[in-house]
Design brief:
This protein has about 450 residues and is α/β, with parallel strands linked by helices. The protein folds into three domains: about 130 residues; about 140 residues; about 100 residues. The chain has a six-stranded mixed beta sheet, with helices on both faces. A hairpin with a 6-residue loop joins strand 1 and strand 2. Helix 1 packs antiparallel against helix 2 and helix 7 runs antiparallel to helix 8. The chain is elongated and about 235 Å long. The relative contact order is 0.04. About 0% of the residues have low confidence.
């Protein structure tokens, strides 16, 4: 849109591009025609002035020549007849020259007018071409602008539609979430009311057993299918005067790689004396040590307002080694966490057990040898005592010969037994159930045979 000011009243008014182009075209055409007319008039006036000037100059020259000739005629009257023809001829020539000059000027004027008209025609044609190109460019730009405006309007309409659709979806989703939260809140409140009512009707022992049942159910539902060979049972062994609640153990290739002692603690809301979690740390650590468990876990609902225990899994190993305190909702995650952590060290445990078994083989061989030496020494001492007794009895009294005989027979039997044991003692028997020593003796024989052959 263009804003124009009226030259008469001074008011401002707005016109569109088409009207503005029309007004510009009219003004250009009128001014151009006026300019062409003015130029034509100027050229015509100039040409007429030049013709008049040339005619005046020629007339003046002719008058001068006539005056001169008149003087010459006056001076040379005698020669008038002779030169009259010449003068007439000269006049004719001058007239002819004047006519030629006039015709030349006319032709030059016609040529100038033709060139001017040609130039004007070319200018008009150029102006028309420019105006047509300008109109086409304006129409093209206007079409592009309209297309862009339509595209923008369509995009705005689409965005508005999408925004309205998203807004309606968000409102529906918000209403669904509010409704769902209300239902969940109502269910939670009903569950809280149920548990409150259940706790009021249960004894203290029943409250604790409810937490144990909950943990046992969670394990059997969620972890038992993944760990069918795991051991998870109540600790019923109170031989040492105390016991935990549950023991968890799991094995791989016959090797125990994780073991956990669990203690579940809960209390009624109306209990006058409130317990703390720390009150049960020492007992739980003692139970862990007595039952040979690696980890100790206290599953507790005590201190419900304590943010430390409400935040998740609490590591209290700074007080007792490998001990954790959790809320019931972290029961399954903690077991899986400890299982995955312990599995990483399973290979090291296997290597450690293999090394221990090798040490046990050597130890068993040494124990067998010491046991043989002890038994042989004991039999030898017995035989020696019998000999000594027999000699003493012979020296004391012949009456004791029978006793001496019996003592000798007893010593002989012991010596026979000792000899039998010594004869029966072989490397093969000593290395039975002892693959380490067997391998060592085989290696020694293998090394000795090449030496004997050499």
């Amino acid at each position: 849109m263009k804003e124009l000011k009226c030259p008469k009243c001074g008011n401002l008014f707005t016109i569109d591009e088409a009207d503005y182009a029309s007004i510009v075209s009219q003004v250009k055409n009128a001014e151009f025609d006026a300019e062409v007319e003015r130029r034509m008039n100027e050229l015509d006036s100039r040409h007429k002035a030049e013709q008049e000037l040339a005619a005046t100059k020629a007339a003046q020259k002719f008058q001068q020549q006539l005056s001169q000739k008149d003087l010459e005629i006056g001076e040379k009257v005698a020669e008038i007849g002779r030169i009259k023809g010449e003068k007439d001829n000269e006049i004719v020539l001058l007239k002819n020259r004047l006519q030629s000059i006039e015709s030349q000027k006319e032709s030059e004027k016609n040529v100038a007018m033709a060139e001017l008209e040609k130039r004007i025609t070319e200018l008009k044609f150029s102006v028309q071409q420019y105006e047509s190109k300008l109109q086409m460019a304006l129409m093209e730009e206007r079409g592009k602008a309209q297309q862009a405006m339509q595209a923008k309007e369509a995009e705005i309409a689409r965005l508005k539609s999408d925004a309205e659709l998203e807004k309606s979806r968000a409102q529906i989703h918000e209403a669904d979430l509010i409704k769902q939260h209300q239902i969940e809140l109502r269910n939670k409140q009903e569950l809280v009311d149920y548990y409150k009512d259940l706790k009021t009707r249960m004894s203290t022992k029943m409250v604790g057993e409810t937490l144990e049942i909950h943990c046992s159910t969670q394990f059997n539902q969620m972890l038992r299918p993944m760990m069918p060979n795991a051991y998870f049972e109540k600790d019923n062994d109170a031989a040492d005067g105390t016991k935990g609640d549950f023991i968890f153990r799991d094995y791989e290739d016959g090797i125990e790689y994780v073991s956990i002692m669990f203690e579940m603690k809960n209390e009624m809301d109306t209990t006058a004396t409130k317990h703390r979690n720390e009150d049960f740390f020492k007992k739980l650590d003692d139970d862990r040590r007595k039952k040979g468990c690696e980890f100790a876990v206290l599953v507790s609902l005590l201190e419900p307002d304590n943010e430390l225990y409400n935040g998740g899994i609490v590591d209290v190993s700074y007080k007792y080694p490998k001990m954790y305190v959790i809320r019931p909702q972290f029961f399954i995650p903690l077991i899986t966490l400890l299982v995955q952590t312990s599995k990483k060290s399973l290979e090291y445990k296997k290597q450690l057990i293999l090394a221990q078994n090798k040490e046990v083989d050597v130890t068993n061989f040494e124990n067998a040898l010491l046991d043989f030496q002890d038994k042989f020494g004991r039999n030898y001492r017995i035989a020696s005592d019998k000999f000594r007794t027999a000699i003493e009895e012979i020296d004391k009294s012949i009456a004791h010969l029978q006793k001496i005989k019996d003592a000798l027979i007893g010593s002989e039997n012991n010596l026979r037994l000792a000899n039998d044991k010594a004869q029966d003692l072989t490397i093969k028997r000593l290395t039975r159930n002892n693959p380490t020593m067997k391998q060592k003796f085989d290696d020694a024989r293998a090394l000795q045979q090449p030496a004997d052959n050499a």
